[in-house]
Specification:
The structure holds 2 protein chains of 2 kinds.
Chain A (H helix, E strand, L loop, with lengths): L3 H7 L1 H19 L3 H23 L23 H31 L4 H11 L2
Helix pairs in contact in A: 2-3, 3-4
Chain B lengths: L6 H16 L4 H29 L2 E5 L8 E5 L1 H20 L1 H7 L5 H20 L3 H20 L4 H32 L4 H14 L3 H18 L9 H7 L2 H27 L1 H6 L2 H22 L3 H21 L3 H30 L13 H4 L1 H15 L5 H14 L5 H26 L17 H19 L1 H15 L1
Antiparallel strand pairs in B: 1-2
Helix pairs in contact in B: 1-2, 1-5, 2-3, 2-5, 3-5, 3-11, 3-15, 3-20, 3-21, 5-6, 5-11, 6-7, 6-11, 7-9, 7-10, 8-11, 9-11, 10-11, 10-14, 11-15, 13-14, 13-19, 14-15, 14-19, 15-17, 15-18, 15-20, 15-21, 17-19, 17-20, 18-19, 18-20
Classes of the chains: A mainly alpha, B mainly alpha.
């Protein structure tokens, strides 16, 4: 039925990616520091990309670029997960840039990176 | 292939290009470009809806790669209806808040506002029409970025902080969606919705991968629920809706969150399969959180002392209604949920825009104490706010009544979920009545004291016309609901 030991050792990349995802998730949600939040977001997305890339990789095969005239599909991996990872990286880079620009604006206004402190000051001082 | 089949793709492209062209224009010309664009897109989508209602749904292949490889759009009468309706609400919200934009946003940044609006509309249309899961993810992110821009274009500390909080929750949501899509891709090997559905049906027969499928369903539903502010994940919502400029608040509350909910409905029907979703445990989770949101959103709204934030908290309750409808697990529940998407989109934008008129004649103050008698000082805004409130409470003649009726009708046929739905529907209606009627009574209480400015119809013609159009949309949805419900039913049939 369900065997944990062999499954765990065979799927170590997926396990690592889920651990990354959870670490990043917790940081993004719980860290009050904005820069640490952004780092957490990047760890979380990297975990997702590692998951996608590792599921698309088959041991012993190479990227589908034809060298030495080998045309058998058995020699290559599926390129779509790698393409999806690239798209995802582009998205996460742009989101990171947006978050950093928001952080700069908040820092210029309040001279702190602590989101909780900014919130308390906003509640005290109004706009 | 009929020329009409190109219309969904054309409308998405037009919105993208309008966004690009707006960036090089002055604010005023960008506004007119956007208005013309919205009207054109509205007409295109209305024609698509009519075509689909007669001839059934169609699939549009992007780039001539056939089914398992290429990228596809799919249009049916439900998608067309949603797209058309979103365009209507967007035009009205844009013009309703246009004079407020001059006070709150730097004049040289106005064209950027229309860039964001164009991008937002294109991503919404793509979310509605897409037949490909990964395209959906990409446009979810574009939607998030555009929405964040709409919040923070009014530059003060509050909006930037609200934008950061919005981004944090949205990023968590979209990462969960992405993880869900990865799992679905890994167990099925497809990204196109129809292919995935075939594979999942085969997998259910064969009994393979039950646990990954359940986790994928959970991640997709919870991710989209976070992004559309279902109850426990709504912490970002009051600030984002309460302090951004009024058009943004109207568009965010009535369109952005609805785009994600519609994507979830589309995933339920076209990716997972409605029966498989209805048998999974996730549906009960959505149901329970929907019920909780209906109560707690209203309780928070009652405790709020700021009219904009009160309307924002009321959104939490209304999103709860929609998820309750999805969580019922029957076709009737889904029809009620989709009708409530329309109702809430029409009503909430009306409330935001009219509340702005009321605060304008109360010295820009948003606390209730200052709003006393505002309904007499600005008659159109007062009437519009009263109409919106009555519709949200569920008084006959307005749209809100029909959706509550549909929810109750859908609940009666369910043995297990009937009692909770009816009880919570009753409690929530009473709570809605408490805070909306409190506000309506407040604005119609005669006020003697410090003189505030009085505004008439001719002082802000466009604003008044927009409010009247909003009222007409609400009453039309309430009175002529049968054809809309029929269109939704046909659209859901086309999904299968």
């Amino acid at each position: 039925m369900f065997e944990f030991g062999p499954n765990l050792s065979a799927n170590y990349l997926q396990i690592a990616s889920v651990i990354f995802f959870v670490i990043g998730f917790a940081n993004l949600l719980l860290q009050p520091n904005l820069i640490k939040k952004i780092i957490g977001f990047n760890i979380m997305d990297s975990g997702t990309y590692l998951f996608l890339a590792s599921m698309g990789y088959i041991k012993g095969r190479v990227a589908p670029i034809i060298v030495d005239g080998v045309q058998s599909t058995e020699a290559y991996i599926n390129p779509i997960p790698s393409g999806l990872v690239l798209t995802g990286i582009v998205v996460s880079v742009s989101v990171t840039a947006l978050m950093l620009s928001l952080t700069i604006r908040l820092y210029k206004r309040y001279h702190t990176l602590n989101l909780d402190e900014i919130s308390t000051r906003l509640n005290r001082e109004g706009l | 292939m009929n020329i009409i089949c190109n219309f969904p793709a054309i409308s998405i492209m037009l919105c993208l290009f309008a966004g690009i062209f707006s960036s090089g224009m002055k604010g005023k010309s960008a506004r007119w470009l956007n208005t013309v664009l919205l009207i054109v897109v509205l007409v295109l989508n209305a024609v698509t809806t009519g075509y689909c209602a007669q001839n059934g749904s169609f699939v549009y292949v992007m780039g001539k790669f056939p089914a398992p490889w290429g990228n596809e759009l799919r249009a049916g009468s439900l998608e067309g209806l949603m797209a058309t309706f979103f365009c209507v609400i967007m035009i009205l919200s844009l013009w309703g808040g246009v004079h407020k934009l001059f006070g709150e946003v730097d004049i040289e940044k106005h064209h950027l506002y229309y860039v964001l609006m164009g991008l937002l509309l294109s991503s919404l249309l793509a979310l509605i029409y897409t037949n490909d899961l990964f395209t959906a993810y990409v446009f979810i992110e574009i939607n998030t970025i555009a929405a964040c821009g709409l919040i923070m274009i009014r530059q003060n500390g509050r909006t930037i902080e609200a934008a950061v909080r919005y981004m944090v929750m949205s990023l968590i949501g979209s990462a969960m969606v992405l993880f869900g899509i990865c799992i679905v891709y890994d167990i099925t090997g497809h990204l196109l919705m129809s292919n995935i559905k075939d594979r999942i049906a085969a997998m259910m027969v064969g009994g393979t991968y039950p646990v990954p499928l359940l986790i994928a369903i959970a991640l997709l539903s919870v991710g989209l629920a976070i992004k559309s502010a279902l109850f426990p994940f709504h912490a970002w919502l009051p600030d984002a809706y309460g302090y951004s400029t009024v058009s943004s608040a109207a568009v965010l509350s009535s369109l952005v969150s609805k785009g994600y909910i519609f994507l979830l409905i589309k995933i339920i029907y076209r990716v997972i399969g409605f029966d498989i979703f209805a048998y999974s445990e996730i549906i009960d989770v959505l149901f329970i959180f929907g019920l909780a949101g209906m109560i707690f959103g209203s309780v928070n709204a009652i405790r709020e002392n700021d009219v904009r934030r009160m309307i924002a908290y009321s959104s939490v309750a209304q999103i709860g209604y929609i998820y309750m409808g999805i969580g019922m697990g029957t076709e009737f529940g889904m029809i009620a949920a989709i009708f409530h998407i329309l109702t809430h989109a029409a009503t909430k934008s009306l409330l935001f825009v009219s509340a702005m008129g009321l605060t304008d004649v109360s010295g820009e103050k948003r606390q209730f104490i200052y709003l006393t008698g505002a309904g007499y000082r600005y008659v159109v805004a007062g009437v519009a706010f009263a109409v919106g409130s009555l519709s949200m409470v569920g008084v006959p003649l307005f749209a809100g009544f029909i959706s509550k009726l549909l929810f109750a009708e859908a609940a009666v046929s369910l043995p297990r979920k009937m009692l909770p739905v009816l009880i919570v529907l009753g409690i929530s209606t009473i709570l809605n009545a408490i805070y909306f009627m409190k506000t309506v009574i407040r604005i119609y209480t005669p006020y003697t004291g410090k003189e505030y400015p009085v505004k008439h119809f001719k002082d802000a013609k466009i604003y008044s016309i927009v409010l009247i159009l909003f009222i007409i949309v609400n009453v039309l949805l309430g009175v002529y609901s049968d054809p809309v419900v029929e269109l939704i039913r046909r659209g859901i049939e086309m999904f299968a």
